[in-house]
Amino acid sequence: MKDLLRSFPRVMGIVNINDDSFSGDGTLDIEAALHQAVQMVLDGADIIDVGAESARTNREAISPNAEIDRLAPFIEAFSAACEELQPRDELQIWPPLLSVNTWRPDIVAAVLKTGKVDIINDIGGLVEDTNARLCFEFGATLLIMHTVGEPKVPHLTQRYENIWETMMEFFNDRIARARRIGLSDDQIILDPGIDFAKQRDDNLSIYRELERLVACDLPVLLPISRKTVIGEVLGIENPADRDAGTIACLVRGLVAKADIFRVHHVKAVADSVRVIAAIRH
User: Is the pTM of this model over 0.85?
Assistant: First the structure.
């Protein structure tokens, strides 16, 4: 997996099966969510990241039953739909990978038991080891995101003396724990967690010095899409209007040699990646 993810810039499309996504693109209609995912794959997505619960901290957490009831039919339908599709080009990962964005171990166990999920996008920051152990048991890849505290809890007052020192200490600990459990470097992805328990200057510092995380020699996912920090820099309140800023973050990530870019507007990013790659080579 590591070599596959690092061989070419990869695009991860975001599918939200909820009615309170911060970017306004969520839906509780499984068919509509499947249509979104299929279109993203046709546009060049290498990975689809599906989540059933908004990460917004001004919303109550949904129940585990509600989360799995949203995810299970999508996982089955997406797997079947991909059998009828063709890759955009020879650069795209095929068949596309499926990632589930969650933090509850019960949900992780349930989706991995389907045998159709490749990546667990753990937005909980691996506070304890259950999700890593489940990934080891089922042979899945674990995406470790930097954050502080529990999901669904606002951290608007979080401050760091040095965001990089704190973040690298976090990743060194989580990588060591994942390896002790038995996960290989082929099964670990790092995510700096833009906007999660971070302020504007923290986020800009992460983009500015991203090479420091890339130097860990593990795949790095950069969440660039429509982020709050983009809105703060440009004075744009509506997340759907931040795609130009998203492309700017993409270019910065490509310069730093990040590996995966998590986005809503897959076509714009996949097209940009291919043009920049052609210019380079």
Answer: yes
